[in-house]
Q: What sequence folds into this?
């Protein structure tokens, strides 16, 4: 809890606090004032973790206009409708199902605490609930009289796993008359002692959340939900009693939300602005901060082992992460939703920044924007002395603007918005970059030396900086760079920040690198923060006294300049006093010059350095939004059940209510559905229209924008030069040399076309000569071609001889010097290797070998005969398990197979016969599927009490491919956000990162449980990869002629691997031996268009795939080459899994898991999924015994 410090309080303020204490105020809610509960009154939920029970109600509850006759009570601090939510979901609100969550957290009552519940019609309790409603909602059109109460109490409950040292106590009471419903949320005095649990992996889970969620995602959260301040719910209220909240939840239309009491404000609600003393404001302080009284108002100060602005405090020794999105609009090449990641070692100010998915065309240029890194350095640099870094001033909530010029020509603007910590203690950001940048040659490194930045406080919550740099490139080129930065934030503690006149950041060991293979831009630096007064070289130490009133001194290189503060403008070019033309900085009258944001029906009142807006008489609003008020007038897009009674008004579909209905000061504002990321397909833009929205395929895409958009073939509008053809490469047209020609576009030459016929066609000092059966132009002896293709005199034509291989001679050849390999060597003269003499010439084969020509080495080679092994020169007889049975594993048998004796694992064991492993026994069979950040366990036949659960939820991952190791009982999945392949046991325990290098976009996964390898398709590198499960040795199976490999399957018994290529121009499915040899296309043409996942039906040994182009599930008998359509009329199938009796697939459009029985595939059934976010469904796998 935040504590109050009186060490610096004057007598005046101490007297004020004593007066506050003596005034009879409402106190926090003691448990004795809860609605009665306990074993004498209630039923008790079984003690443990993740438990719930369904309760049949005698009087139905109205919730967001729907009527519910049952309710679920959950251990984890919530009540749910429709579905049971039996497990804790580590996600941010809203959840997917309708819930009332007084305090949603990972509760575990194994060690301590109980959950009580009951429905009651006790007259005294009904009267209490009724009176609460009538007192707080006096204008209900039909009055209210409760007929039933549902009471649920979480009494001294502990946290996962069996934690008992801290406990929480709270209660939820739903009152209903069958037609209208209200909910009371009650928090005992000091009743919230813990906010988050620690999961199986030792990682803190989401902080406790409090709120109400309707079906469809609409939700309302209480103040402090998901933050450290949630611990203060017992001190806040909307019902005039600390620890008590009440909401109308019943007859609410589709566009409305829960309604708080219209006129009741809690004494701890800050309705009259920021509180001035710790008596009221201490609850705004972090639990690891103290509240200190100051003459200018209270301040929150973090404890010594923490740092921050007091409202948020972070542990000094704990590293932090930044997650966000970056938009680039640089030189007409817009890129949106680039992943921005930061890792901060707070102890020493070490910063690591990465921007993912940057194409090569922009990646090298963006290296120049090291300001993206230096801003984080300002935020988290290691403070020295009594200096403060940016986080200690802002709490991580800050807007940053940087205006940058390069070489006085190129200009770029960076705007970043940091919104502080989320409920996982990660810092959220979003940024935009606009403008132009100079070109940086490919593979050229930007070298950033150590530098210093000086920042000047130019007003409350505002710092500015102006710096000049000279950027050195690895190729010796330099760029001049001017950077003007502004930092804006809310300055809560004026007393503490006013001495921070200026600050300095020293940044050293700067690292900038663009990795074109992984399309990642990386920054790194060490940063320290000093007070500007500690820098004797600060020109503003002297310069401030030269600046006029209402201006600030800004360091500029080795000098300074004066700039007018916000709200003021410069009247002439001279801001220095004692000048004959000194008019200084004058207040901007925003009301006259039209720069104000007041509504046309508002009065603008100018203030020094600012302005204020006030709605005119007869209008209501905040001054920036004013509406004409006339009695009985219904605002546009509103519907009122009782004319003239605004408390009965609601907004039409597509609009939301803003303001207070009881004073008619409300409006129905259009809902921008486009702020919800999942309303349109990924390749479509959402366009908001009044009351609705529409989807439109982005430029370069076409299709049905409400369902899917696919890339337009750019070759349709591209005309290529002669001897070239157009090829669609990742949505871009590229002209390449046509078959039968060679060269580099646009200069492609036919193999049978001569470049010249005589010397006259080759220009001055040129000659026409025969080479490779065609005539082409070259230079005469002593001349060489310059970059323009002209022949110019060489200084010394014999310089070429210095590059000859040591096993070559330099000879004059056709008027020029050439390197020729010596006898017995071969090569181009610059590199010569000894000719390999075959065994047909020198002999040397073993008596148990044959001399056979090998095309791979173009000579004759010795090969050991069948039954022998060796290098051909030496061959020894192969010993089989028939001669030596101990060659086999104890769990294998020596079997005569394919004309030889081999070790074969016994039933129930798997391996190569030498090593056999027993497969893990399964207690049950089910499905595992990927849903973006979540991996779900789903029963084959879910029930209301067993709908499955997540085994993993990671906020920052996108899980795509999935496969199981049926021998070891582990699941593997690919994460394309973090470029990793991860693994855990089937139940989610023993989580591991299996591979985190050499991956760009792993989409499909398959496991060879016999030979112990995992295969995946990498659409970033366009290759098929195999990795040993035990040693992690990696090898490439295929890497040529792949455009967008996606699905993959493996049959270890046949030694085959299959994969699909999701190439719209030429889709296909291929197979190869496990080592990549004997690669062939097995499906093309009408049976395959957009093949996603592959799966093997082990009961028929068919290869099957989900095709989003044909919208079908197809299967193929590979040996017989007989394809067949299994299921038609799918919407957009993606993942595919097959059991002995059922096909299962995920669908991107329906966002459902679909299934169909093998004996009647025309019947399609959707399977309800457990709670787990709003992401798309990707890969799915059946967890069964090894085939």
A:
């Amino acid at each position: 809890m935040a504590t109050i410090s009186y060490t610096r309080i004057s007598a005046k303020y101490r007297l004020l606090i004593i007066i506050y204490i003596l005034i009879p105020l409402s106190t926090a809610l003691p448990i004795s004032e809860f609605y009665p509960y306990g074993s004498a009154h209630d039923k008790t939920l079984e003690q443990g973790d993740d438990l719930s029970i369904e309760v049949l109600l005698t009087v139905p509850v109205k919730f967001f206009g729907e009527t519910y006759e049952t309710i679920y009570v959950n251990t984890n601090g919530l009540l749910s409708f429709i579905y049971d939510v039996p497990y804790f979901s580590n996600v941010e609100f809203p959840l997917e199902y309708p819930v009332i969550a007084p305090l949603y957290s990972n509760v575990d009552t194994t060690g301590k605490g109980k959950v009580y519940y009951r429905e009651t019609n006790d007259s005294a309790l009904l009267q209490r609930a009724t009176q609460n409603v009538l007192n707080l909602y006096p204008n209900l059109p039909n009055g209210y009289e409760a007929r039933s109460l549902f009471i649920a109490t979480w009494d001294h409950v502990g946290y996962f796993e069996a934690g008992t040292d801290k406990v929480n106590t709270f209660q939820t009471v739903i009152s209903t008359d069958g037609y209208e419903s209200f909910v009371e949320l009650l928090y005992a005095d000091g009743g919230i002692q813990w906010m988050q649990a620690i999961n199986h992996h030792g990682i803190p889970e989401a902080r406790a959340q409090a709120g109400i969620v309707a079906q469809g995602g609409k939700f309302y959260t209480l103040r402090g939900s998901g933050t450290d301040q949630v611990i203060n719910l017992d001190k806040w209220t909307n019902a005039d009693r600390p620890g008590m909240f009440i909401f109308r939840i019943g007859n609410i239309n589709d566009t409305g939300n829960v309604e708080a009491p219209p006129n009741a404000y809690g004494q701890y609600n800050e309705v009259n602005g920021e509180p001035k003393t710790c008596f009221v404001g201490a609850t705004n302080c972090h639990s690891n901060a103290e509240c200190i009284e100051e003459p200018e108002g209270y301040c929150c100060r973090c404890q010594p082992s923490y740092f921050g602005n007091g409202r948020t405090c972070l542990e000094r020794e704990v590293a932090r992460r930044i997650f966000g999105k970056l938009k680039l609009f640089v030189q007409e090449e817009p890129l949106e939703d680039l992943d921005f990641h930061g890792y901060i070692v707070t102890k020493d100010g070490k910063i690591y920044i990465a921007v993912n998915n940057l194409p090569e065309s922009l990646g090298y240029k963006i290296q120049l924007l090291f300001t993206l890194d230096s801003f984080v350095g300002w935020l988290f640099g290691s403070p020295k002395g009594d200096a403060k870094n940016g986080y200690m001033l802002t709490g991580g909530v800050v807007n940053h603007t940087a205006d940058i010029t390069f070489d006085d020509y190129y200009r770029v603007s960076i705007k970043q918005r940091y919104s502080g910590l989320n409920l996982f203690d990660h810092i959220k950001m979003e940024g935009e970059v606009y403008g132009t940048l100079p070109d940086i040659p490919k593979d050229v490194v930007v070298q950033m030396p150590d530098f210093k930045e000086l920042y000047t406080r130019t007003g409350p919550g505002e710092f500015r900086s102006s710096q000049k740099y000279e950027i050195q490139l690895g190729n010796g080129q330099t760029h001049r760079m001017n950077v003007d930065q502004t930092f804006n934030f809310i300055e809560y503690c004026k007393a503490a920040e006013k001495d921070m006149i200026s600050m300095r950041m020293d940044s050293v060991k700067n690292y900038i690198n663009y990795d074109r293979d992984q399309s990642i831009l990386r920054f790194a630096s060490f940063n320290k923060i000093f007070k500007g007064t500690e820098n004797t070289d600060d020109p503003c130490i002297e310069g401030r006294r030269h600046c006029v009133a209402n201006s600030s001194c800004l360091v500029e290189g080795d000098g300074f300049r004066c700039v007018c503060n916000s709200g003021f403008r410069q009247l002439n070019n001279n801001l220095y006093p004692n000048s004959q033309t000194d008019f200084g900085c004058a207040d901007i009258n925003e009301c006259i010059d039209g720069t104000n944001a007041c509504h046309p029906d508002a009065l603008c009142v100018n203030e020094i350095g600012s302005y204020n807006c006030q709605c005119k008489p007869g209008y209501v609003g905040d001054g920036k939004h004013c509406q004409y008020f006339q009695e009985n007038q219904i605002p546009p897009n509103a519907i009122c059940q009782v004319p003239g009674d605004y408390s009965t008004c609601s907004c039409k579909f597509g609009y939301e209510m803003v303001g207070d209905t009881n004073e008619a000061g409300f409006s129905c504002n259009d809902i921008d559905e486009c702020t919800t990321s999942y309303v349109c397909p990924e390749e479509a833009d959402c366009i908001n229209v009044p009351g609705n929205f529409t989807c439109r395929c982005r430029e370069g895409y076409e299709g049905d924008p409400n369902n899917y958009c696919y890339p337009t073939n750019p070759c349709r509008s591209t005309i290529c030069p002669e001897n070239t053809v157009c090829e669609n490469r990742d949505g871009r047209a590229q002209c390449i040399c046509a078959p039968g020609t060679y060269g580099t576009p646009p200069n492609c030459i036919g193999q049978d076309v001569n470049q010249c016929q005589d010397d006259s066609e080759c220009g001055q000092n040129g000659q026409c000569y025969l080479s490779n059966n065609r005539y082409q132009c070259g230079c005469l002896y002593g001349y060489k071609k310059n970059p323009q293709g002209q022949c110019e005199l060489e200084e010394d034509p014999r310089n070429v001889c210095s590059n000859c291989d040591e096993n070559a001679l330099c000879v004059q050849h056709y008027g020029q010097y050439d390197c020729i390999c010596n006898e017995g060597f071969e090569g181009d003269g610059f590199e010569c290797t000894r000719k390999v003499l075959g065994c047909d010439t020198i002999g040397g084969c073993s008596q148990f070998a044959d001399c056979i020509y090998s095309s791979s080495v173009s000579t004759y080679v010795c090969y050991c005969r069948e039954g022998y092994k060796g290098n051909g020169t030496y061959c020894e007889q192969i010993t089989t398990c028939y001669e030596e049975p101990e060659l086999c594993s104890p769990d294998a048998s020596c079997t005569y197979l394919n004309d030889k004796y081999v070790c074969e694992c016994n039933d129930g064991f798997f391996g190569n016969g030498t090593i056999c492993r027993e497969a893990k026994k399964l207690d049950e069979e089910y499905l595992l599927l990927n849903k973006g950040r979540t991996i779900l366990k789903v029963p084959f036949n879910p029930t209301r009490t067993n709908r499955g659960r997540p085994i993993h939820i990671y906020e920052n991952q996108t899980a795509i491919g999935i496969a199981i190791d049926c021998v070891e009982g582990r699941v593997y999945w690919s994460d394309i956000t973090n470029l990793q392949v991860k693994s855990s046991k089937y139940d989610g325990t023993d989580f591991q990162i299996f591979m985190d290098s050499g991956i760009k976009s792993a989409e499909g996964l398959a496991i060879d449980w016999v030979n112990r390898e995992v295969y995946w398709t990498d659409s970033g590198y366009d290759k098929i990869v195999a990795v040993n499960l035990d040693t992690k040795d990696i090898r490439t199976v295929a890497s040529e002629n792949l455009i967008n490999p996606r699905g993959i399957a493996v049959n270890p018994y046949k030694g085959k691997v299959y994969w699909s290529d999701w190439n719209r121009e030429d889709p296909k499915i291929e197979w190869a031996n496990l080592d990549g040899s004997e690669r062939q296309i097995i499906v093309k043409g009408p049976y395959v268009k957009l093949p996603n996942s592959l799966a093997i039906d082990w009961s028929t040994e068919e290869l099957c795939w989900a095709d989003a182009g044909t919208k079908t599930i197809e299967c193929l008998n590979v040996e017989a080459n007989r394809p067949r359509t299994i299921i038609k009329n799918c919407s957009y199938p993606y993942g595919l899994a097959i059991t002995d009796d059922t096909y299962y697939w995920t669908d991107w459009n329906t966002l459902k898991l679909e299934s169909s029985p093998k004996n009647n595939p025309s019947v399609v059934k959707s399977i309800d999924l457990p709670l787990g976010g709003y992401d798309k469904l990707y890969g799915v796998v059946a967890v069964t015994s090894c085939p």
In short: The mean pLDDT is 84.
